[in-house]
Design brief:
Layout (H helix, E strand, L loop, with lengths): L11 E7 L3 H14 L3 E7 L2 H7 L7 E4 L8 H12 L8 E5 L4 H11 L3 E4 L4 H30 L4 H7 L1
Parallel strand pairs: 1-2, 1-3, 3-4, 4-5
């Protein structure tokens, strides 16, 4: 996926990468960069509590969250974000990146907590591309909408004539 929308420059997504292992955060960021799904700008968090302090739905476009962490697990983080900001089509996509592979755990992350996708460690670049394509595309579309709304908000209302005569 070279461009999210034909004729547009490639979108850059701000991605929150949450894992208590610095090595694993680097592996996730390297894998995402090498996937070439989009350009990523990364913000790192060491656990769910740290991620909560760094999460701003106006700034963060997508999150990649480990399951097992101290202080606040990834599933607890996803639940808290969904409780605070809601879920659904317009919400920031959250992806669980974990070694948990049982159907019960996958169901808990996706159906009960509200995660949008699930990637099992270890992963390949091809798996990231295949499993994350739609989720990353959705995040890109949401970023374009946020940018357009911000641009519209900065323009004077009523156009040129209102500015001259209003």
């Amino acid at each position: 996926m070279q461009n999210l929308i034909k004729g547009q420059a490639m979108v850059t997504l701000k991605a929150l990468v949450v894992d208590d292992s610095g090595v694993m955060r680097k592996m996730v960021m390297k894998g995402l960069t090498e996937s070439k799904l989009v350009n990523f700008e990364f913000i790192e968090a060491v656990d769910g509590q740290d991620a909560l302090t760094k999460f701003d739905p106006k700034e963060i476009d997508i999150g990649f969250v480990d399951w097992n962490m101290p202080n606040m697990t990834g599933v607890e983080f996803v639940r808290e974000i969904r409780n605070l900001y809601g879920g659904g089509v317009g919400s920031v996509p959250l992806v669980m990146v974990t070694s948990e592979k049982t159907m019960g755990k996958i169901q808990e992350a996706l159906d009960e907590a509200g995660a949008d996708a699930f990637i099992c460690k270890p992963f390949t670049i091809e798996e990231l591309q295949t499993k994350l394509k739609k989720t990353v595309e959705r995040a890109g579309i949401l970023r374009l909408r946020k940018d357009a709304a911000e641009k519209k908000k900065q323009q004077p209302s009523g156009g040129l004539l209102a500015g001259l005569f209003g």
